[in-house]
Structures are given as structure tokens and as C-alpha cells.
Protein 1
Amino acid sequence: MTPQPNPQVGAAVKAADRAHVFHSWSAQELIDPLAVAGAEGSYFWDYEGNRYLDFTSGLVFTNIGYQHPKVVAAIQEQAATLSTFAPAFAIEARSEAARLIAERTPGDLDKIFFTNGGAEAVENATRMARLHTGRPKVLSAYRSYHGATAAAINLTGDPRRWPSDSGAAGVVHFWAPFLYRSPFHSDSERQEAERALQHLEDTIVFEGPGTIAAVILETIPGTAGIMTPPPGYLAGVREICDRYGIVFVLDEVMAGFGRTGKWFAADHYDVTPDLMTFAKGVNSGYVPLGGVAISAAIAETFARRPYPGGLTYSGHPLACAAAVATINVMEEEGVVDQAARIGETVLGPGLRELASRHPSVGEVRGTGVFWALELVRDRATREPLVPYNAAGEANAPMAAFGAAAKANGLWPFINMNRTHVVPPCNVTEAEAKEGLAALDVALTVADEHTV
């Protein structure tokens, strides 16, 4: 795993990228993508020989790290046996992946509809809910991200929605609980849960319960800030949905498959939704795969009525073989328990210790290997280190923080005024401590922008 510098190859890779690759979420002439030469475990490296500890897990998907040999071998074996096949057939890798996933989902979520990723999973979950109920509207939280396809981007709460918001997509946004920046002026978790639930029910009543097909929530919001819900909130949402005949959808695309120290984040709250979306960690992102886990009641809706949806590559054999191998690796190597232990004994205590010494840290929150640091200019007022949706000079403090982290060999996950700590679920104790040490240095740079 020792990087071998090869600047000439790196320059060629970079030149071809800049000439031909159109990057997502970017002004094309204002970006400078790093040319990556390789990756293994919790690290990746560039063509200059610089190695980085990846505290982003790609885009929070390499739950077992890069290049796990058992998953690579499973993909190779599947490619040699049956590299692809249409979704209408029963294929061993597809059947086995569905079985392994269904064994781990909560309650009766025993039917699996495969997609190519998380956004398509959300698209199909909302379609299922609308067809099951015959109702048009879906409610989602402002602080959320559900994907970039047509329905998913409208469900998303953050500013990436704005350029694509049709204003007529049948989506209504509401405030979910977030005590640190409470929209309900709460002073305790219990109060925040009660007031958030009342707000949700008021929204349903005024929108018309008979018009609402589903409520969709990230079990623990990911990109929006890793805000763990207060006790009782998700159970309260479940009760409200049951009372009004509304489908409850949990988005576990980012939080699922060990990230929170449980197979699914819902396991922390003893809540079973009607539909659950997944992707990312299901096969550590080695081959694109997502899906919807479906309850018995909703599956029954389509027992004799065709479901009007599908994808050419649904349940692709290579992706499913990677999922089978990933789930088996997670079981054999105790990866879910490892994520819980690292969160409890290393990341949680370590991040709280950093917060005690750095005035730029307003709050530490998370579980497992799913954490966020809320960076602020002023702890007393909780003013964010940079404004909401900041860019350019307004975002300079966070840019300086990120540059300091990279200079110390840490690749950070940064969104607005937060840095997320989301290494692979099998990150070692030594690697986690290495990352904390690099964060310590970078936070000193952030401290320079506090009052």
C-alpha cells in the first residue's frame, strides 16, 4: 500500500478529465479534481505519492473500505460465470442478495426491489406509496437529502433542490427535530420531540390527510447534518402515519448497513417503516446498487396488479454478487460491532475532547462511524462558521479548514458549516486516532475565525 509517484500518468489522467468529464454539482471551470492513483482499506493516494486517510468513505459508501479482497474476488467470479442478465429472470446472485438483505431489515420488510442507487430507490418508494394509497402528496423534512432524480430532488430539503424545484411535484416540506438549532424553541430532547410531532401532525391536518401518500425521513439525516432524532420521535411519526393511513418511508441510503453501529439505523429506535430505501453500504459501492425493502401490505397491493416501474439493470448480477460478498464479510469480520465499538470508545470520546479545546466546535453528534462537528463563529450565539449555503469568499473559513486537513493527510467530508466524520465501518482504532489528530490541527485553523 506504499504509493509510487508517477506524475506523468497523473498529468495525463487530469488532462483527459478536464477535457471530457462533466462533473456533478460543479461549475466546470472552477473545480480542480484530484487525480487518484489507487486505494486500499481506509486510504487512497494520488500520483504524486500523497496518501490520504479517507474520512468520507467515498460519499459515505465504502463501509468495508476500498478493495476488500473477498468482494473483489466475488465480482471477478461472477463476471466469469454470468456477467449480466435481464431483471425478469431468477438469478442466483440476485436471489441471494435479496435474501440476505431481507434477513436484516426490520419487521416484515421481506420483499426487495433493486435499483441502481439511492435516488432511484426513493423514486420507486414514493411511487409505490402513491399507488398503494391513491394519494398524491409526500411530506419530507427541510434538513434532508434524498437524491438528484426528479422526485428525489423535490423531496430533498437542502439548496440543491432549488434550481430543479418544479413547485408542483406533490411535495410538502416540514421541520424535523434538531435541538441544537430548534425551530420550535425547545430546551430539551423531550420537548423537541413533542413539538416536532405536533408540527408534523398540524401540517398533515392542514394539508388534508386524505391527500398524503407518505412521510419520508432519513432515519438519521446524513448530508444535512447527522442529527440523531430525539427519543420517541420516530415512534411518534409511526403512530401518526398509522392513524391517518399514511405510508411511512425511512431513507437508509447513507445510514444503513453498519454505519450507525447497527445493520440499520431504525434498529436503534425499534421502529419498522412500511418502505425502506437503501444503497451505498449494501456493497460498499463497488458496483452501483440500491433498492427498496417492502412491507407485506404494500407488496400485496402489487400481488395481482402490475407494478409500473423497472430498470434495465435492476439487480445486476455483478452488483448483487458484490452485495452478497459484502454482507458476508460484515458478518464474518464483525464489522457492524466494530463500527459501534469505534464510535463508543474512540470517535465519540475523541471528538468530544476536541470540542472541549476548540472554540470553533459548537456541537458533536452522532453514533457508530456516523458523526458531525457543527462549526461556529460564536459558541454563545451558535452563529455558524460560514453562512447557510455559503460560496466563494463567504466560505473561506471552511475552505481553510479543509485545506489544513488535507495538508495533514486527512480527506474530510465538509458540508456548509460542518465536517462529518464518516470513515469506513471497519476503520481501525489506530486509523481513527490518526484522523482525530489531523482534525485537531485543522480545527486550530477554524478557531482563527471565531470571536
Protein 2
Amino acid sequence: MRKTTALRTAAAATAALLAATACSSRRDQDAQDTAAGGACKGQQTTGITDKAVKLGGIYPLSGPASAYGTISKGVAAYFEYVNDKGGIDGRKVEFVVRDDGYQPPKAVEEARRLVEREKVFAVFQTLGTPSTAAVWDYLNERKVPQPFVATGASVWGTDDKHPWTSGWQPNYVAEARVYAKYLKDEKPKAEVAVLYQNDDFGKDLLGGFEKALAGSGVKVVAAESYEVTDPSVSAQMASLARSRADVLLDITTPKFGSQALAADAKNTKWNPLHIVNNVASSAAVLQPVGFENVQGVVSATYFKDPADPQWADDPEVKTYKKAMREYAPDADPANQFNAYGWTVASSLHRALDAMKCPTREGLRDAVRDLKDVKVGMLLPGVTLSTGRGDDFPIETMQLMRFKGERWQLFGEPVDTRKEFGPPAK
């Protein structure tokens, strides 16, 4: 899939921002970076020793997407838990978290800080499509691993010019395909109204949805976009309601997801099947609307919901809850964003274990050669798999419906690789 105009624009802006100090900072970095010997001779060992590994993460701890900031608490809790058990292959993990406020220029600043000042081994987790797009040219030029970015844009797995960057969660095209299959099977004549964020995140999921519907009786009859700087989406929701569509596809981040759910609940004259994308499906997003107002909302997931009683005796969920209480007492273990953080951190653990060389190159290669790797918090049937021509670790999801005070899984897991093939480049 070609990179979109916005991704190219972000890359160009990044290049301009970095140009003024690139030469001097490169000299400083080269003077301090370290390299391996022996069988791994010449490979980069900056940020990793026999006893420690230093990782950096960039999250919106403030700003319009600050609800995602708690993901870093789940990540940090996992690493603290592992450190108390001896670390990863004997290495204690230091996890440095920086705040970009969901602003790409700030993400660039923080990425440079992590690489050039903090000397991290890898920038693990940059959250959001705009921020990730803003920094991936820089990190790939520096040959710094950017594993398991916290965004599902399909470009992270289809682009072959950025080998140091990799996705983790199901890409937005794969997620869109799950919703399209559900509607084609259950509501084959559905008319769909779409609310989407006006950036690569929103356009990627919407484009994948429309392509997956091609040739079916399901039609998109209305679409409204919003900017992350908008105060609300009330006007867009009012416009979509006038379409009288019987399905609403809600492609939003948490703040706007809550607003859309509230607007839908308030409009008693319009009662569509409301599908909310995974990144805005946390119960923390739904709760402010009132659980009684979001009954029957549909989404999709790929990891275990710690609030779901069916996992109450699951060993990994029990470990997760106990560790969150111990290492992140100010965070709610039932919040799916915290569980996301724990799950992606444990996935990185598997990749670090799989390194043939304890180097940046070793991690780069390990995340692109995962073979049905099991992670305790992933749903049954969901594993990490990557390989030549297929750099999306997770492409299987299962539908869920909100009932009572929690999500309930239904149907069977959908392996979008088998159903649709890989997203096109």
C-alpha cells in the first residue's frame, strides 16, 4: 500500500525539523555508541549490556488522546514484574516514558531525546499514526529499532523502506475486514454511516472497510470526518443521523468515541447498530456515557479483557491483576488500555528472547521472524507471526458485544490472513 499524502507530509516536516542539528548530533552519537564483537561483530549494542536493557516509549500523557497514556503504566508494570524475577535473559529493563501530547513535532523532539541523550536500545511504542509517521524516518536513518508501534496503520507492515519499524496490533485494514464480514453475513443489505478521524488512522480503516464491502449489498451511505482539535463531534453526528442508516461505524479515538456514543444515546429517533473501533472500545470510554446507554454496541478484540469473568481463573490474567496492584496501584487493572500495555510488553519480551544477537540488529530481525509465538494475554487462537512479505504480528480478531457492564465475545476468531489475504502494498 502506498504511503498517503499525510504520511509523506509528516516525513517531510520531520526532515526539516531535524536538518538544523543533524550533523552535530550524529557526531555526538557516533562518539558514544557501542558495537558488538565476536559473531555479532559490528552490530549496535547501544542501550544494552549483559545486565541491563534501556527502552524508551512515547505516549500522549497529555492532550486530546491522553486516555491512551495509561498504556505506559501497563508496560511499566510488566517490566517491573519481570525485573523482580531476574529480568529478561538476566537483563533488568529500564523503561523511559516521554510525553508528546499527541503532537507529531513533540514526538520528534522526544524521539531525539531518547536516542541521543538517553541512549535507549530501542524506541518501543510510539503511540498514534501521526506521531509514529513523524519519527520513523529519523529512527530508521539512525538504525534504531522501533518495535510494536501503538497504531494499527497498515503501512507499518506493508512498507519495505523502514525495516526498523514494525507494528503489533491488528492493522486497521484487518479490523475493518472483520466488521465488513460481520455485516455481510448478518445484515447483507445494511446502509452504513461512518464517523472517522480525518487522518491516516481514520482513512486507513474506512478505506479497508469500503474495499472489503466491494461487490456486496452493504453500502456506505454517509460519512463525516472530524479533526483531533475539534471540541466535539455533535454536528457530525447530527448530519449522520439524517442519513437514517441502520449501522453506524465509529472510527474514533477515546475522547471522540465517548462523544459519539453519547450523541447516539441521546438521539432516540435514530437507533443504528453502533460499531466502535477497537482503539475506542475500552470500558473507560463507555462508562462516562452510562453503561445503560451503550448496550448492544459491537467491537472487536484480540486480547483477554481482565473485566470478563470468563478469564477470572486464567493464570496470565491473575498474574496481570496482581502485578498491576503491586506495581501500578494508581491504575485500574480492569482498564483494557492497561491490559494492552501488559500484553505488548510481554510480546516484546518474546522478541528479545528470540534475538540471535543481543544487538539492535538482532531485535530488528527477531520482530520480523516470529513463528506462531504465544503470549498469555492474547485470546485463544491468536499468536504472533511475521515473515517475509507479512510484517503484521497479529491479524486475528474476535467480535464482542457490550452487555451489562462488560464486553462479551461472540462468534469465532476471524483470521483475516485466511479470509482476505494480506493487505495490498
